[in-house]
Amino acid sequence: MKPAQGTSAAATPSFRVEEQLAYCAAQARKTVAQTADYTKLPRRISAGKNQWEYVDREDWTSGFWPGTLWYLYQQQPTGFWKEKAEGFTQNLAPVLDHQTVDHDLGFMFYSSYGNGYRLTKDPAYKQVLLRAADSLATLFNPRVGTILSWPRMVKQMGWPHNTIMDNMINLELLFWASKNGGRKELYDMAVSHARVTSQHHFRPDGTSYHVAVYDDKTGQFLKGVTHQGYADNSMWARGQAWAIYGFTMCYRESREPEFLDRARKSADVFIRRLPEDQVPYWDFDAPDIPQAPRDASAAAIVASALLELSTLVPDQSAAQGYRRQAEKMLATLSSAQYQARNQSPAFLLHSTGHKPNGTEIDASLNYADYYYLEALLRLQKLQQGKPL
Ligand code: GLY
Protein backbone atom coordinates (compact mmCIF):
# COMPACT_ATOMS: atom_id res chain seq x y z
CA MET A 1 0.00 0.00 0.00
CA LYS A 2 1.36 3.43 -0.89
CA PRO A 3 1.53 6.16 1.77
CA ALA A 4 -1.59 8.33 1.97
CA GLN A 5 -1.47 11.79 0.48
CA GLY A 6 -2.43 14.90 2.36
CA THR A 7 -2.45 13.36 5.83
CA SER A 8 -2.71 16.22 8.25
CA ALA A 9 0.42 16.57 10.37
CA ALA A 10 -1.87 17.32 13.32
CA ALA A 11 -3.46 13.91 12.81
CA THR A 12 -0.20 11.93 12.95
CA PRO A 13 -0.70 9.00 15.31
CA SER A 14 0.94 9.09 18.69
CA PHE A 15 3.39 6.34 19.54
CA ARG A 16 5.16 4.91 22.53
CA VAL A 17 8.91 4.43 22.25
CA GLU A 18 8.94 1.26 24.38
CA GLU A 19 6.25 -0.34 22.20
CA GLN A 20 8.20 0.46 19.06
CA LEU A 21 11.41 -0.93 20.55
CA ALA A 22 9.55 -4.14 21.40
CA TYR A 23 8.21 -4.20 17.83
CA CYS A 24 11.76 -3.89 16.42
CA ALA A 25 12.99 -6.71 18.66
CA ALA A 26 10.10 -8.97 17.59
CA GLN A 27 10.72 -8.27 13.90
CA ALA A 28 14.48 -8.81 14.28
CA ARG A 29 13.84 -12.18 15.93
CA LYS A 30 12.03 -13.22 12.74
CA THR A 31 15.10 -12.24 10.69
CA VAL A 32 17.42 -14.06 13.09
CA ALA A 33 15.30 -17.21 12.72
CA GLN A 34 15.70 -17.04 8.93
CA THR A 35 19.38 -16.07 8.86
CA ALA A 36 21.66 -18.66 10.41
CA ASP A 37 24.70 -18.00 8.20
CA TYR A 38 26.85 -15.13 9.52
CA THR A 39 28.29 -14.46 6.05
CA LYS A 40 24.84 -13.52 4.67
CA LEU A 41 23.70 -10.02 5.59
CA PRO A 42 20.05 -9.02 5.04
CA ARG A 43 19.98 -5.87 2.89
CA ARG A 44 16.58 -5.35 1.24
CA ILE A 45 13.04 -6.67 0.91
CA SER A 46 11.74 -5.58 -2.47
CA ALA A 47 8.28 -4.02 -2.82
CA GLY A 48 5.55 -6.65 -2.53
CA LYS A 49 7.98 -9.35 -1.31
CA ASN A 50 8.34 -10.78 2.17
CA GLN A 51 11.86 -12.23 2.25
CA TRP A 52 15.20 -10.55 2.76
CA GLU A 53 17.68 -10.49 -0.10
CA TYR A 54 21.19 -10.97 1.22
CA VAL A 55 24.61 -9.48 0.47
CA ASP A 56 28.13 -10.43 1.51
CA ARG A 57 30.58 -8.57 3.76
CA GLU A 58 31.91 -6.39 0.91
CA ASP A 59 28.59 -4.59 0.45
CA TRP A 60 28.40 -0.99 1.73
CA THR A 61 25.44 -1.93 3.95
CA SER A 62 27.10 -4.94 5.59
CA GLY A 63 27.48 -3.20 8.98
CA PHE A 64 23.84 -2.29 9.47
CA TRP A 65 22.44 -5.71 10.41
CA PRO A 66 25.16 -6.35 13.03
CA GLY A 67 24.66 -2.73 14.16
CA THR A 68 20.93 -3.32 14.55
CA LEU A 69 21.67 -6.39 16.66
CA TRP A 70 24.02 -4.34 18.88
CA TYR A 71 21.32 -1.72 19.39
CA LEU A 72 18.89 -4.48 20.39
CA TYR A 73 21.53 -5.79 22.80
CA GLN A 74 21.88 -2.25 24.21
CA GLN A 75 18.11 -2.20 24.81
CA GLN A 76 17.96 -5.77 26.16
CA PRO A 77 21.43 -7.04 27.22
CA THR A 78 20.86 -10.77 26.81
CA GLY A 79 23.12 -13.53 25.53
CA PHE A 80 20.75 -14.02 22.61
CA TRP A 81 21.38 -10.59 21.07
CA LYS A 82 25.07 -10.58 22.00
CA GLU A 83 25.81 -13.90 20.34
CA LYS A 84 24.11 -12.85 17.11
CA ALA A 85 25.67 -9.38 17.11
CA GLU A 86 29.13 -10.85 17.65
CA GLY A 87 28.71 -13.45 14.94
CA PHE A 88 27.65 -11.03 12.22
CA THR A 89 30.20 -8.42 13.34
CA GLN A 90 33.19 -10.76 13.31
CA ASN A 91 32.33 -11.88 9.79
CA LEU A 92 33.31 -8.42 8.48
CA ALA A 93 37.01 -8.19 9.44
CA PRO A 94 38.38 -9.87 6.24
CA VAL A 95 37.24 -6.77 4.31
CA LEU A 96 40.37 -5.12 5.73
CA ASP A 97 42.71 -7.75 4.28
CA HIS A 98 42.61 -6.27 0.79
CA GLN A 99 43.26 -2.83 -0.66
CA THR A 100 40.77 -0.09 0.26
CA VAL A 101 38.00 -0.14 -2.33
CA ASP A 102 36.08 3.01 -1.37
CA HIS A 103 34.91 5.28 1.44
CA ASP A 104 32.22 2.97 2.84
CA LEU A 105 34.43 1.52 5.60
CA GLY A 106 32.86 3.86 8.15
CA PHE A 107 29.34 2.68 7.39
CA MET A 108 30.51 -0.92 7.51
CA PHE A 109 32.79 -0.89 10.54
CA TYR A 110 31.50 1.90 12.78
CA SER A 111 27.93 0.53 12.76
CA SER A 112 29.12 -2.99 13.57
CA TYR A 113 32.46 -2.97 15.41
CA GLY A 114 31.92 0.60 16.63
CA ASN A 115 28.69 -0.26 18.43
CA GLY A 116 30.19 -3.55 19.54
CA TYR A 117 33.20 -1.81 21.08
CA ARG A 118 31.04 0.87 22.70
CA LEU A 119 28.99 -1.81 24.45
CA THR A 120 31.61 -4.49 25.23
CA LYS A 121 35.00 -2.72 25.26
CA ASP A 122 36.42 -5.85 23.59
CA PRO A 123 40.06 -4.89 22.74
CA ALA A 124 39.98 -7.03 19.59
CA TYR A 125 37.16 -4.82 18.25
CA LYS A 126 39.25 -1.74 18.94
CA GLN A 127 42.12 -3.10 16.85
CA VAL A 128 39.79 -3.78 13.92
CA LEU A 129 38.36 -0.25 14.14
CA LEU A 130 41.84 1.29 14.15
CA ARG A 131 42.77 -0.76 11.07
CA ALA A 132 39.55 0.32 9.35
CA ALA A 133 40.30 3.99 10.07
CA ASP A 134 43.83 3.68 8.66
CA SER A 135 42.45 1.95 5.59
CA LEU A 136 39.87 4.73 5.05
CA ALA A 137 42.58 7.38 5.52
CA THR A 138 44.52 6.04 2.52
CA LEU A 139 41.84 7.66 0.32
CA PHE A 140 42.46 11.15 1.70
CA ASN A 141 43.88 13.58 -0.87
CA PRO A 142 45.67 16.46 0.92
CA ARG A 143 45.59 18.66 -2.18
CA VAL A 144 41.78 18.59 -2.16
CA GLY A 145 41.37 18.12 1.58
CA THR A 146 38.75 15.35 1.29
CA ILE A 147 38.52 11.59 0.96
CA LEU A 148 38.17 10.12 -2.53
CA SER A 149 34.81 8.37 -2.15
CA TRP A 150 34.74 6.25 -5.29
CA PRO A 151 38.14 5.37 -6.83
CA ARG A 152 36.28 3.33 -9.49
CA MET A 153 34.52 6.47 -10.76
CA VAL A 154 37.79 8.27 -11.52
CA LYS A 155 38.06 6.50 -14.87
CA GLN A 156 34.47 5.36 -15.30
CA MET A 157 32.98 8.86 -14.99
CA GLY A 158 36.05 11.03 -15.60
CA TRP A 159 35.78 12.39 -12.03
CA PRO A 160 39.47 12.85 -11.04
CA HIS A 161 38.66 13.28 -7.36
CA ASN A 162 35.06 12.68 -6.29
CA THR A 163 33.53 13.09 -2.86
CA ILE A 164 29.93 12.12 -2.16
CA MET A 165 27.80 13.54 0.60
CA ASP A 166 27.35 10.06 2.11
CA ASN A 167 31.08 10.18 2.92
CA MET A 168 30.33 12.55 5.81
CA ILE A 169 29.09 9.60 7.87
CA ASN A 170 32.42 7.78 7.53
CA LEU A 171 34.23 10.62 9.30
CA GLU A 172 32.91 9.35 12.63
CA LEU A 173 35.32 6.40 12.37
CA LEU A 174 38.26 8.81 11.92
CA PHE A 175 37.19 10.97 14.87
CA TRP A 176 36.80 7.87 17.03
CA ALA A 177 40.20 6.45 16.03
CA SER A 178 42.00 9.74 16.73
CA LYS A 179 40.68 9.60 20.31
CA ASN A 180 41.33 5.91 20.83
CA GLY A 181 44.99 5.35 20.07
CA GLY A 182 45.00 6.31 16.38
CA ARG A 183 46.99 9.10 14.75
CA LYS A 184 46.09 12.76 15.42
CA GLU A 185 46.12 13.25 11.60
CA LEU A 186 42.89 11.24 11.42
CA TYR A 187 41.14 14.04 13.31
CA ASP A 188 42.68 16.66 11.01
CA MET A 189 41.53 14.74 7.94
CA ALA A 190 37.97 14.50 9.25
CA VAL A 191 37.82 18.23 10.01
CA SER A 192 39.36 19.12 6.65
CA HIS A 193 36.92 16.85 4.80
CA ALA A 194 33.94 18.43 6.54
CA ARG A 195 35.24 21.96 5.98
CA VAL A 196 35.89 21.48 2.24
CA THR A 197 32.54 19.71 1.86
CA SER A 198 30.74 22.56 3.59
CA GLN A 199 32.46 25.03 1.27
CA HIS A 200 31.72 23.34 -2.07
CA HIS A 201 29.01 20.73 -1.70
CA PHE A 202 26.08 23.10 -1.07
CA ARG A 203 24.03 25.54 -3.08
CA PRO A 204 23.15 28.96 -1.69
CA ASP A 205 19.71 27.70 -0.54
CA GLY A 206 21.31 25.04 1.70
CA THR A 207 20.49 22.04 -0.51
CA SER A 208 23.35 19.74 -1.48
CA TYR A 209 24.84 18.03 -4.50
CA HIS A 210 25.26 14.31 -4.23
CA VAL A 211 28.76 14.31 -5.78
CA ALA A 212 31.40 17.04 -5.71
CA VAL A 213 34.09 16.65 -8.38
CA TYR A 214 37.52 18.16 -7.78
CA ASP A 215 40.80 18.40 -9.69
CA ASP A 216 42.96 15.85 -7.93
CA LYS A 217 46.17 17.83 -8.57
CA THR A 218 45.13 21.41 -7.81
CA GLY A 219 42.26 20.70 -5.43
CA GLN A 220 39.99 23.01 -7.43
CA PHE A 221 36.23 22.32 -7.20
CA LEU A 222 35.08 21.48 -10.74
CA LYS A 223 31.37 20.71 -10.50
CA GLY A 224 28.50 19.35 -8.43
CA VAL A 225 26.54 16.48 -9.97
CA THR A 226 24.22 13.66 -9.00
CA HIS A 227 24.47 9.90 -9.06
CA GLN A 228 21.45 8.70 -7.09
CA GLY A 229 19.29 11.81 -7.25
CA TYR A 230 16.87 13.08 -9.89
CA ALA A 231 19.12 15.82 -11.33
CA ASP A 232 22.40 17.59 -10.68
CA ASN A 233 20.55 20.50 -9.09
CA SER A 234 17.85 18.58 -7.23
CA MET A 235 17.75 17.78 -3.51
CA TRP A 236 18.21 14.00 -3.26
CA ALA A 237 16.51 13.16 0.04
CA ARG A 238 19.06 10.72 1.43
CA GLY A 239 22.02 12.84 0.37
CA GLN A 240 20.56 15.75 2.34
CA ALA A 241 19.89 13.36 5.23
CA TRP A 242 23.56 12.33 5.27
CA ALA A 243 24.49 16.03 5.34
CA ILE A 244 22.26 16.73 8.35
CA TYR A 245 23.49 13.68 10.24
CA GLY A 246 27.13 14.13 9.21
CA PHE A 247 27.51 17.80 10.10
CA THR A 248 25.69 17.29 13.41
CA MET A 249 28.14 14.51 14.26
CA CYS A 250 31.13 16.63 13.13
CA TYR A 251 30.00 19.47 15.40
CA ARG A 252 29.67 17.03 18.33
CA GLU A 253 33.21 15.79 17.70
CA SER A 254 34.99 19.07 16.88
CA ARG A 255 32.82 21.92 18.29
CA GLU A 256 33.60 23.89 15.11
CA PRO A 257 30.72 26.43 14.88
CA GLU A 258 30.65 26.27 11.06
CA PHE A 259 29.60 22.61 11.25
CA LEU A 260 26.67 23.41 13.52
CA ASP A 261 25.65 26.17 11.14
CA ARG A 262 25.85 23.76 8.19
CA ALA A 263 23.86 21.09 10.04
CA ARG A 264 21.13 23.60 10.83
CA LYS A 265 20.94 25.03 7.31
CA SER A 266 20.80 21.51 5.87
CA ALA A 267 18.07 20.53 8.31
CA ASP A 268 15.99 23.68 7.91
CA VAL A 269 15.58 23.38 4.14
CA PHE A 270 14.82 19.64 4.46
CA ILE A 271 12.15 20.25 7.11
CA ARG A 272 10.64 23.21 5.25
CA ARG A 273 10.11 21.15 2.11
CA LEU A 274 8.73 17.95 3.67
CA PRO A 275 5.30 16.69 2.60
CA GLU A 276 2.53 16.68 5.18
CA ASP A 277 3.19 13.23 6.58
CA GLN A 278 6.86 14.21 7.22
CA VAL A 279 8.44 11.42 5.14
CA PRO A 280 10.22 12.83 2.06
CA TYR A 281 9.78 11.77 -1.51
CA TRP A 282 13.00 10.07 -2.70
CA ASP A 283 14.04 13.38 -4.27
CA PHE A 284 12.43 16.67 -3.24
CA ASP A 285 12.42 17.75 -6.90
CA ALA A 286 11.14 14.51 -8.44
CA PRO A 287 8.90 15.55 -11.34
CA ASP A 288 6.11 13.09 -10.49
CA ILE A 289 5.38 14.26 -6.93
CA PRO A 290 2.90 13.30 -5.36
CA GLN A 291 3.10 9.95 -7.17
CA ALA A 292 6.88 9.66 -6.61
CA PRO A 293 8.10 6.98 -4.17
CA ARG A 294 8.99 7.99 -0.64
CA ASP A 295 12.25 7.38 1.16
CA ALA A 296 11.60 6.28 4.74
CA SER A 297 15.36 5.71 5.17
CA ALA A 298 15.96 9.46 4.77
CA ALA A 299 13.26 10.19 7.36
CA ALA A 300 14.81 7.72 9.82
CA ILE A 301 18.34 9.15 9.36
CA VAL A 302 17.07 12.70 9.81
CA ALA A 303 14.93 11.85 12.84
CA SER A 304 17.99 10.42 14.56
CA ALA A 305 20.16 13.38 13.53
CA LEU A 306 17.59 15.97 14.70
CA LEU A 307 17.42 14.36 18.13
CA GLU A 308 21.16 14.86 18.47
CA LEU A 309 20.98 18.35 16.96
CA SER A 310 18.36 19.24 19.60
CA THR A 311 20.98 18.56 22.29
CA LEU A 312 23.66 20.70 20.60
CA VAL A 313 21.94 23.96 19.60
CA PRO A 314 22.25 26.64 22.29
CA ASP A 315 18.87 28.22 21.48
CA GLN A 316 16.20 26.36 23.49
CA SER A 317 13.30 27.13 21.20
CA ALA A 318 15.25 25.85 18.18
CA ALA A 319 16.22 22.76 20.21
CA GLN A 320 12.60 22.05 21.03
CA GLY A 321 11.64 22.57 17.39
CA TYR A 322 14.18 19.96 16.18
CA ARG A 323 13.06 17.48 18.82
CA ARG A 324 9.38 17.96 17.98
CA GLN A 325 10.17 17.53 14.30
CA ALA A 326 11.99 14.26 15.00
CA GLU A 327 9.07 13.04 17.07
CA LYS A 328 6.63 13.83 14.25
CA MET A 329 8.75 11.87 11.79
CA LEU A 330 9.05 8.94 14.18
CA ALA A 331 5.30 9.01 14.78
CA THR A 332 4.67 8.58 11.06
CA LEU A 333 7.33 5.87 10.75
CA SER A 334 5.65 4.13 13.69
CA SER A 335 2.25 4.07 11.98
CA ALA A 336 0.75 1.09 10.15
CA GLN A 337 1.35 2.91 6.87
CA TYR A 338 5.13 2.68 7.16
CA GLN A 339 5.64 -0.50 9.19
CA ALA A 340 6.16 -3.97 7.77
CA ARG A 341 4.48 -5.70 10.77
CA ASN A 342 2.98 -8.99 9.48
CA GLN A 343 4.03 -8.43 5.87
CA SER A 344 7.74 -9.16 6.34
CA PRO A 345 10.49 -9.25 9.01
CA ALA A 346 11.74 -5.71 8.27
CA PHE A 347 10.85 -2.80 10.58
CA LEU A 348 9.92 -0.25 7.90
CA LEU A 349 8.43 -0.09 4.41
CA HIS A 350 8.68 2.57 1.68
CA SER A 351 12.38 3.35 1.28
CA THR A 352 14.14 4.08 -1.99
CA GLY A 353 17.73 2.98 -2.59
CA HIS A 354 18.73 3.88 -6.14
CA LYS A 355 15.87 5.27 -8.20
CA PRO A 356 17.86 6.22 -11.34
CA ASN A 357 19.15 2.64 -11.42
CA GLY A 358 15.62 1.27 -11.01
CA THR A 359 16.65 -0.64 -7.89
CA GLU A 360 15.25 -0.74 -4.35
CA ILE A 361 12.22 1.39 -5.07
CA ASP A 362 9.55 1.44 -2.35
CA ALA A 363 11.49 -1.28 -0.53
CA SER A 364 12.52 -2.19 3.00
CA LEU A 365 16.21 -1.43 3.57
CA ASN A 366 18.52 -2.49 6.40
CA TYR A 367 19.79 1.07 6.97
CA ALA A 368 16.26 2.49 7.27
CA ASP A 369 15.70 -0.03 10.07
CA TYR A 370 19.08 0.71 11.68
CA TYR A 371 18.55 4.48 11.89
CA TYR A 372 14.90 4.08 12.96
CA LEU A 373 16.05 1.92 15.89
CA GLU A 374 18.89 4.34 16.68
CA ALA A 375 16.41 7.24 16.71
CA LEU A 376 14.04 5.37 19.05
CA LEU A 377 16.91 4.65 21.45
CA ARG A 378 17.99 8.28 21.33
CA LEU A 379 14.44 9.47 22.02
CA GLN A 380 14.14 7.02 24.91
CA LYS A 381 17.30 8.49 26.46
CA LEU A 382 16.04 12.05 26.05
CA GLN A 383 12.69 11.09 27.60
CA GLN A 384 14.60 9.62 30.55
CA GLY A 385 16.67 12.82 30.88
CA LYS A 386 19.88 10.99 29.97
CA PRO A 387 22.63 12.22 27.61
CA LEU A 388 22.68 10.55 24.17
N1 GLY B 1 25.64 5.40 0.55
C1 GLY B 1 24.75 5.04 -0.46
C2 GLY B 1 23.35 5.46 -0.27
O1 GLY B 1 23.00 6.25 0.56
O2 GLY B 1 22.57 4.97 -1.04
- Write the element-wise H/E pattern from the N-terminal end onward: HEEHHHHEEHEHHEEHHHHEH
Summarize the main sheet: 3 strands, antiparallel
Strand order of the largest sheet: 2-1-8
Poorly predicted runs are 4-12
Reported by name, the CATH topology of one domain is Glycosyltransferase
How many helices? Answer: 13
Structural class: mainly alpha
What percent of residues are in strands? 5-15%
Molecular structure report:
There is one protein chain. By secondary structure, the chain is mainly α. Among the domains are: about 1-35 and about 275-388, Glycosyltransferase (Alpha/alpha barrel), CATH 1.50.10.10; about 45-140, no CATH class. Helices cover about 50% and strands about 5% of the residues. Strands 2-1-8 form a three-stranded antiparallel sheet. It starts with 16 loop residues before the first helix and ends in a 5-residue tail after the last helix. Residues about 5-10 have low confidence and may be disordered. The structure holds glycine (GLY).
Key features of this structure:
388 residues; mainly alpha; Glycosyltransferase; three-stranded antiparallel β-sheet; binds glycine
Spell out the blueprint of helices and strands:
Elements lengths: L16 H18 L6 E5 L7 E3 L8 H12 L3 H12 L14 H16 L2 H15 L2 E2 L4 E2 L4 H5 L4 E4 L2 H13 L4 H17 L10 E4 L6 E5 L11 H18 L2 H16 L23 H17 L3 H18 L30 E2 H18 L5
Antiparallel strand pairs: 1-2, 1-8, 3-4, 5-6, 6-7
Helix pairs in contact: 1-2, 1-13, 2-3, 2-4, 2-13, 3-4, 4-5, 4-7, 5-7, 7-8, 7-9, 9-10, 9-11, 10-11, 11-12, 11-13, 12-13
